[in-house]
Design goal:
The protein has 255 residues and is of the alpha/beta class. The protein has a single domain, classed as Rossmann fold, CATH 3.40.50.150. It contains 10 helices and 7 strands.
Length: 255
């Protein structure tokens, strides 16, 4: 069992925020779209998947359930979600009940690296705004496809680099990413390249959420933490827009 300190260090590393900010992230309200540039684009993508009732959707990391809970509501699918942030899991569980799909949704605290060791447990896997646990697209797809049934789908919404750069060494170019995702014979059946057009809206939403949290908190130390977070958003937006493109991949798993 991992200690709370180990979990915090892990989340801090993969999310790229200071350790003290991890505690405050669940307080940010943004219509469940936190760290997800594809809020408006995903519904259309999901309609194209032709989801059926009782299919198993594995949502990792699930966050607050803002992506997968509407799928249970609209398509009658069964959702299983995991996240290492307990407050997110608790919120997702409560939100599913509020939307009258608590019977279709199960959210648990869990390390993604452990979850992907289970074979063939889902029909569709959601890997949206993901942490870069595995350094390459090849290693990522190797882990993810293990828990998806034959002919199942993996939906990936992530960034790619325009060219190799040390600052974004965890991101590969689009070509290298595509090669990695198809290493084991799986097929990219849809790819939508948004390039840099989503960054501005995404960062504006994140800033607004942080600014609202800043207004509500009465703790001086927390105010300073959130202010530093907002400053980091301003820096990251310029850099991300310059070096990273955004895309959605739908991959058919072929075993």
């Amino acid at each position: 069992m991992k200690t709370s300190k180990q979990v915090t260090e892990y989340v801090t590393k993969i999310m790229g925020v200071e350790e003290e900010m991890i505690r405050l992230l669940p307080q940010l309200e943004d219509k469940l779209g936190l760290l997800n540039p594809w809020v408006r684009q995903l519904p259309g993508i999901f309609r194209g998947l032709k989801l059926k009732p009782n299919q198993i959707i594995l949502d990792i990391p699930c966050g607050k359930g803002g992506v997968s809970i509407p799928l249970a509501k609209n398509f009658g699918v069964k959702v299983i979600g995991y996240d290492v942030i307990e407050a997110y899991v608790n919120y997702a569980t409560s939100y599913a009940k509020k939307k009258s799909v608590g019977n279709l949704c199960t959210f648990k605290i869990g390390d993604i690296r452990d979850i992907t060791k289970h074979k063939n447990i889902s029909d569709v896997l959601l890997w949206i705004a993901p942490p870069h646990i595995w350094k390459t697209a090849k290693e990522t797809i190797k882990a993810l496809r293990n828990c998806v049934k034959n002919n199942g789908r993996i939906l990936i919404a992530d960034a790619y680099s325009y060219k190799p750069t040390k600052k974004y060494e965890d991101y590969e170019t689009m070509n290298s990413t595509n090669i990695g995702y198809t290493t084991f014979g799986d097929k990219i059946i849809k790819f939508v390249d948004y390039k840099d057009i989503l960054w501005e809206e995404d960062y504006n939403r994140a800033r607004k959420s942080a600014e609202e949290a800043l207004k509500k908190t009465k703790i001086a130390n927390d105010k300073q933490i959130i202010k530093r977070y907002i400053e980091s958003l301003n820096r990251d937006e310029k850099s991300d827009t310059k070096y990273l493109g955004l895309g959605i991949w739908v991959i058919q798993v072929i075993k």
